[in-house]
Design brief:
binds nicotinamide-adenine-dinucleotide, seven-stranded mixed β-sheet
Length: 480
C-alpha cells in the first residue's frame, strides 16, 4: 500500500458533486512528518455553502421519509466499503495526520463499527404510549429527526470523530454538512466516498472546507440548520454553542480535557504503566481523553515514575508510514510551540524531567515522549491541556486530598484510577467529576458506550443510545 500510495486530491463534496471551490481559492494540506505539501485544499465560498444548505434543505423530507430499515441498509453497505478500503483510508490519514499506519487503519475499521452500530440503533428509535387519564385518549410520543446538521470535526481522529457525527445524524434521518479539519481533509472525504458509493442519496451528505470561523458562522446562522455538533477546544466550543443559542438550536459539544490518573498505594503498577502509558503517548498525546495529570500515592510515586519513564523512553518515534514507528509527529507546528512553552514553564516552576523534554530537531513536528515529575499547581501545564506527549506527576497521601486535586479544574471529560480495592474503586468512581471514568482500564471509546464530558468539557454524548438521541426531537401527540 505505502509504496504505490498517492495522496488523493481533496475536493469539496456538495449536492453529490466532487469539485473544487467556486471561488478557486485553496489552502495547503501538509505531511506533518516532513512538512511537505501533499495537495492544495479547495475552499468553499458562500455560494458553495449556499449550495450545500440548499442540498440539505431539499433532501431532508426525502431522507426522513426513508425508513430506518432502508437508511440502515445504506449505512451498513458503506461500513462494508470502509472495511474493504481500510488500508487505503489509513494511508490517507497517516499522510495528513502523522499517526502510525496500523493505528490509522484500525481507526478506519472502527468507523465501520460506528456506522454499523448506528444503522442498527436507528431501527430501535422507539417512541412510547403513555396511559391516559382521559377515556379513549392516546398519548403517543415519537422520536423524529431534528433536521439538517452542521458538524465540525478536528484533526486528531480524522476518521472516527467525523464518523460519530455523520453516522448518528444520518441514521436518525438528518442530512449533514460537515467541515472536517483543514489539516486532515482526505480522511473524511474517503468516508464520504464510501457513503456515496453505497448509494446515499445525493445531497444528504456534504463536505466543505475553508476558514473554520467563517464557515461555522455562516452555516450556524442559516435557518436551514437545526443542530450543530463540534469537537475541539473549549474556547471554540463556547463560541459555537453561543452562536447556536442565539438561534435556539441544540448543540453537542465534545471539548477539551485534562484527565487525572490516580494511582493508589495498592495499585498494580505494571498494569497502570502499560495501560496509561499506552493511552498517554498514543497519537502523540493528541487525544482529548489522554491521561495527563498522574496523582501517585507517595509510597509508590518513585517506583511508578521509574516504570513510566522507561516505557516513554522506549518508544520509537518516526514517520507513521514506517512499520516500526510507535509514535508519529504532532499534527501541526502549533503543537510543538505549545509543548516547548508548557515544558519550559513547568521546569521554571521546579518540575523534574524523568523522560524526554524536547523535540529531536530536524524536519517534521516531532516531540519526545515526556514525563515531568513533582509539578506544582502553579505551572501552566497543571491547568492547560497539553494535547501532546507530556505526562506530569504529583504525589498524594489521602483520598480526600487527591479527589480535590483531580476535580480542581473546570474540565470534566475523562478520569482514571488504579487500585486493587473494590471499595476504593467504587468510592473513586463516585467522587470524580468526569463524563467517563476508567478504573483499572483505559479504553473509553466504543460505538455502544456514551462518550462525552461534564463541566467545561462540553455537553451531550456521542456513542451509546445517547448518541442517536442527540439527533432526535421528541414529539407528543394526544389523540382523542
Ligand atoms: P483549535 O481550537 O484552533 O481547533 C480545533 C478544531 O476546531 C480544528 O479542527 C479547527 O478547524 C476547529 N475550529 C477552530 N475554530 C473554529 C470555528 N470558529 N468554527 C468551527 N471550527 C473551528 O485548536 P488547535 O490548535 O487545532 O488544537 C489545539 C486544541 O484544540 C487542543 O489544545 C485541544 O484542546 C483542542 N482539540 C480538542 C480535540 C478533541 O478531541 N476534543 C481535538 C482537536 C483539538
Amino acid at each position: 500500500m505505502t509504496d504505490a500510495f498517492e495522496y488523493p486530491q481533496p475536493k469539496l463534496f456538495i449536492a453529490g458533486h466532487w469539485r473544487m471551490g467556486g471561488g478557486g481559492d485553496t489552502l495547503s494540506v501538509r505531511n506533518p512528518a516532513t512538512g511537505q505539501e501533499l495537495a492544495p485544499l479547495p475552499v468553499a465560498n458562500t455560494a458553495d455553502l449556499d449550495e450545500a444548505l440548499t442540498a440539505v434543505e431539499r433532501t431532508f423530507p426525502l431522507w426522513r421519509a426513508t425508513s430506518a430499515y432502508d437508511r440502515a441498509k445504506i449505512l451498513k453497505k458503506a461500513a462494508g466499503l470502509m472495511r474493504e478500503r481500510a488500508a487505503y483510508i489509513g494511508a490517507v490519514s497517516t499522510s495528513e495526520q502523522g499517526k502510525p499506519l496500523a493505528e490509522s487503519t484500525n481507526e478506519a475499521m472502527a468507523c465501520a463499527d460506528i456506522f454499523e452500530w448506528y444503522a442498527e440503533e436507528a431501527r430501535r428509535a422507539y417512541g412510547r404510549i403513555v396511559p391516559s387519564k382521559h377515556p379513549g385518549v392516546r398519548h403517543m410520543v415519537f422520536k423524529e429527526p431534528v433536521g439538517p446538521v452542521a458538524a465540525f470535526s478536528p484533526w486528531n481522529f480524522p476518521t472516527t470523530i467525523p464518523s460519530r457525527k455523520m453516522a448518528a445524524a444520518l441514521a436518525a434521518g438528518c442530512p449533514v454538512i460537515i467541515k472536517p479539519a483543514e489539516e486532515t481533509p482526505g480522511s473524511c472525504l474517503e468516508l464520504a466516498r464510501c457513503l456515496d458509493d453505497a448509494g446515499l442519496p445525493k445531497g444528504v451528505l456534504n463536505v466543505v472546507f475553508g476558514v473554520p470561523a467563517d464557515i461555522s458562522t455562516y452555516l450556524i446562522a442559516s435557518p436551514v440548520i437545526r443542530k450543530i455538533s463540534f469537537t475541539g477546544s473549549t474556547v471554540v466550543g463556547k463560541h459555537l454553542a453561543g452562536l447556536a443559542a442565539q438561534r435556539m438550536i441544540p448543540s453537542t459539544m465534545e471539548l477539551g480535557g485534562h484527565a487525572p490518573v490516580i494511582v493508589f498505594d495498592d495499585a498494580d503498577l505494571d498494569l497502570a504503566v502499560r495501560l496509561s502509558g499506552g493511552s498517554k503517548y498514543r497519537n502523540a498525546g493528541q487525544i482529548c481523553i489522554a491521561p495527563t495529570r498522574f496523582y501517585v500515592h507517595d509510597s509508590v510515586h518513585d517506583a511508578f515514575v521509574e516504570k513510566l519513564a522507561a516505557y516513554a523512553s522506549s518508544l520509537k518515534i518516526g514517520s507513521g508510514m514506517e512499520a516500526s514507528t510507535q509514535m508519529g509527529p504532532l499534527a501541526n507546528p502549533r503543537r510543538l510551540t505549545a509543548m516547548d512553552d508548557l515544558i519550559s514553564d513547568a521546569r521554571q516552576h521546579g518540575a523534574g524531567v524523568a523522560a524526554g523534554g524536547k523535540g529531536p530537531g530536524g524536519a517534521g513536528n516531532f516531540w519526545q515522549p515526556t514525563l515531568l515529575t513533582d509539578v506544582p499547581n502553579s505551572a501552566r501545564i497543571m491547568s492547560e491541556e497539553p494535547f501532546g506527549p507530556v505526562a506530569v506527576t504529583q504525589r498524594f497521601s489521602t483520598f480526600d486530598e487527591v479527589v480535590a486535586q483531580a476535580n480542581r479544574l473546570p474540565y470534566g471529560l475523562a478520569a482514571y484510577a488504579y487500585t486493587r480495592s473494590a471499595r476504593t474503586a467504587a468510592d473513586i468512581g463516585d467522587a470524580l467529576e468526569a463524563g467517563m471514568i476508567g478504573i483499572n482500564f483505559s479504553i473509553l471509546t466504543g460505538p455502544e458506550t456514551p462518550f462525552g464530558g461534564v463541566k467545561e468539557s462540553g455537553h451531550g454524548s456521542e456513542g451509546g443510545i445517547e448518541g442517536l438521541e442527540a439527533y432526535h426531537v421528541t414529539k407528543y401527540v394526544a389523540q382523542g
